[in-house]
Amino acid sequence: MSEERGICVRDVAAADFIEAYAEHLKNSDKFELPVWSDTVKTGVFKELAPYGDDWYYIRAASIARKVYLRPGIGIGMLQKWYGGGYRRGTRCVHFRKSASGVIRSVLIQLQEMRVVEPLPDGGRRVTTVGQQDLDRIAGSVFRAGEEDEDSDSDDE
Q: Which residues, at least 6 apart from 60, have a Cβ–Cβ distance to it below 8 Å?
């Protein structure tokens, strides 16, 4: 019998955590969808706005996870992370950064929720309250994954 240890964001799969935290943000009354979210592109290299209705919550969950894993990360580094290839017709592809306005608006809302805080020398980090919140959700994702594995092994 192993002793119980705390589950953090690093212990769960990224896709599972982002999906669960996006659902948490969607159900939260503190996190609001901006009015421009249905028309804005996420970068100059994109042709259209995202199709999904809750893409903003998914991006916010992904940004919160990134800030958790890399304290001190700023808008510029997140722009690079979410950037992509700008296909220019017959000319060669060039890398372009993602739209900073989307990232900035997400970080401002997470800051108002007390999940992240700015650092004095630039960048942002997760607050202790935000870390508890993210770890709690990671723990629920981890336990849900264990229950799925247990039910799969019972079927065999």
A: 22, 25, 31, 106, 109, 110
- DSSP 8-class letter at 43: B
pTM comes to 0.88
The dihedral through the CA atoms of 6, 12, 16, 17 has a sign that is positive
Q: For the chain, which domains are there?
A: 14-148 (1.10.10.10)
How would you write the pLDDT of the chain (156 residues) with one tens digit per residue? 344 578 889 989 999 999 999 999 999 888 888 888 888 998 988 888 888 889 999 999 999 999 999 999 999 999 999 999 999 899 999 999 999 999 999 999 999 999 999 999 999 999 999 999 999 999 999 888 877 776 665 555
**DSSP 8-state symbol, 37:** G
Q: At what angle do helices 128-155 and 55-69 cross, to 10 degrees?
A: 110
Determine how many CB atoms are found less than 10 A away from the CB of residue 24. Answer: 18
